Amino acid sequence: MSRARHPALGRVGHLSIRRRYGIYAVALAVWITGVGWLVFHYFLKQVDEFGFDAAHPAEKWWLIGHAVVAFYALWWFGLLWTSHVLNAWKARVRRGSGGALFACTAWLALTGCALYYIGSELWRACVSILHWAVGIAAVAAFIYHLQARTARAGRPGADRVPG
Questions:
Q1: Contacts of the segment 136-142: beta carbons below 8 A, 24+ positions apart
Q2: Model pTM?
Q3: Least confident piece of the model among 42-56, 61-75, 140-154
Q4: How many CB atoms lie within 10 A of CB 46?
Q5: SS3 12
Q6: pLDDT at 10 (0 to 100)
Q7: Dihedral sign, CA of 124, 139, 30, 77?
Q8: With left for phi above 0 and alpha for psi between -120 and 50, is residue 53 left, alpha or beta?
Q9: What is the rounded distance in angstroms from the CA atom of residue 102 to the CA atom of residue 145?
C-alpha cells in the first residue's frame, strides 16, 4: 500500500485506531479496578461480630479483577513495545512523555509482582503504598503522553520518518 492511500504508514510509532482504543480501554480498566480496590480497602471496611475492622466482601473481587486486567495490560505492553515504543524511541519522538509512561508501567509491573511474592507484612504494606501511589499518578503520565501527541500533530511532518 502506498503512503498516498494510507498517510499514517509513514508515521513513527503510529497506532491504528483499534489498537489505540484497545489500549485506552485496558488502561482505564486497570486504573478503575485499582481505585476500586483502594476505596473498598481503605474506606469501606466493615465491623465483624466481635467489633473488629474486617475487609469488605467486595474488596477481594476488586483485587482479583485488577490482577486479571493488569495481566492483560502487560500483554498489551508487549504488543506496544515492538510496534510503538522501540520505533518512537529510536526516532527520538516524544521521549520525555513516553519515558515517563514507560517508567510508570515498569514500576507498576515490578511492584505488582513483588506484592504477590513478598511475605513480610511490613514490606508488603510499604510496596503496596508505593504501587498504588504511582498507579494513581500514572494517569498524569498517560495524559502527558497524549498531550504531547496532540501538540506535535499541529506541526507538519513532525511525526514522519525522514526520507
A1: 136/34, 136/35, 137/104, 138/31, 138/101, 138/104, 138/105, 138/108, 139/31, 141/97, 141/100, 141/101, 141/103, 141/104, 142/27, 142/101
A2: 0.78
A3: 140-154
A4: 12
A5: coil
A6: 55
A7: negative
A8: beta
A9: 10
